[in-house]
Amino acid sequence: MRVRDVLVRAQAALRTAGSTSPVIDAEVLLAHVLGADRAALYAAPERELTQEQVARYRELVAQRLDGVPVAYLTGRKEFMGLDFQVNPAVLIPRPETELMVERALALLQDLPRPLVVDVGTGSGAVAVSIARHHPGAVVYAVDISKAALEVAGANARRHGVAERVRCLEGDLLAPVPPELVGRVDLICANLPYVPSPDFPHLPRDVRHEPRLALDGGPDGLGVYRRLVPQAARFLRPGGRLLMEIDPRQAREALSLVPAPDWEVFIERDLSGKERLVVGRYKEG
Ligand SMILES: C[S@@+](CC[C@H](N)C(=O)[O-])C[C@H]1O[C@@H](n2cnc3c(N)ncnc32)[C@H](O)[C@@H]1O
């Protein structure tokens, strides 16, 4: 079979199954099987596939039809211009989370050797991106999932920042060394924030991701509620806390970071949605 033929069939099957991106999904999976990029498919639509390639492609398309996200099938996801390894132990990094990294880099730009904590690091997308884009940053990357930390560590090595990304296993800021109390410049948190009752109604693809990465308790804010007092302990005066939220939680999330200890505002993402709580811890 030729590239063009298998693509047409896969796209039709994905479209029939209700996929919102049948063309891209079919192309990305075929490029993955061929060890090529998508442009190579356009360059050689008449290329004949081997039987093994056809069989492997059919297997991946079948899994995609079952709702397995493309990133888990290819094992890769692009974030902040970097190629990240992913697997079902970690949340697939989302484009909207780039806002947190951009804000973090802007806040850190005048500090030569800032101390940063990325709590709930997952694949390490946030921690590794900060370390790659700020050559002096030292980032403590915490996760409660050992399997996720293995992925974060692999991504730190892949991008040459393993010496400055320190992976720590545990609950919220508990594993952060006590000598960092009152000294941390910035804490980034993209922790679970989906209300538990919403979980069964999430899109099928999302339900393939770890529940531990998504479920934020009855109102979705349980994990952030526990984080804020811990963050206050570790931040230096004037240090910042960034928390990604669901736009529908914005008012409630603001109330977790109260005056007079905090100055706080919410930043909108590119689609205009309230996405990021930016807290500044009081000056002494
Ligand atoms: C929404 S995912 C975010 C992953 C990554 N930061 C990103 O933006 O792609 C949340 C992560 O928080 C971790 N997590 C959940 N509860 C935690 C806790 N109590 N302490 C530390 N990490 C936790 C999960 O294992 C998961 O990796």
Structure description:
This protein has 284 residues and is an alpha/beta fold. It folds into two domains: 3-66, Ubiquitin-associated (UBA) domain (Helicase, Ruva Protein, domain 3, Orthogonal Bundle); 76-281, Vaccinia Virus protein VP39 (Rossmann fold, 3-Layer(aba) Sandwich), CATH 3.40.50. Helix content is 38%, strand content 19%. It is built from eleven helices and nine strands. The strands form two sheets. It has a seven-stranded mixed sheet, with helices on both faces. Strands 1-2 form a two-stranded antiparallel ribbon. Strand 1 and strand 2 form a beta hairpin. Helix 1 crosses helix 2 (22-34) and helix 2 packs antiparallel against helix 4 (51-65). The N and C termini lie far apart (69 Å). 39% of the residues are buried. The model has no long low-confidence stretch (mean pLDDT 96). S-adenosylmethionine (SAM) binds at residues 90-91, 93, 97, 119-123, 125-126, 142-145, 148, 171-172, 190-192, 212-213, 223.
CATH C-level name of the largest domain = Alpha Beta
Give the strand tally: 9
As residue ranges, the low-confidence spans are: none
What fraction, in percent, of the residue positions are helical? 25-40%
Radius of gyration: 21 Å
Q: For the largest beta sheet, what order do the strands appear in spatially?
A: 5-4-3-6-7-9-8
Tally of individual domains: 2
Task: Tell me the number of helical segments per DSSP (H or I, 4 or more residues long).
Answer: 11
Distance between the termini: 69 Å
Query: What molecules are bound to this protein?
Result: S-adenosylmethionine
Morphology = elongated
Percent of residues in beta strands:
15-25%
Largest beta-sheet details: 7 strands, mixed
Indicate the CATH architecture of the largest domain. Answer: 3-Layer(aba) Sandwich
Q: Give me the CATH fold name of the largest domain.
A: Rossmann fold
CATH superfamily of the largest domain: Vaccinia Virus protein VP39
User: Averaging pLDDT over every residue, what do you get?
Assistant: 96
Classification by helices and strands = alpha/beta
The run of helices and strands is HHHHHEEHEHEHEEHHEHEE
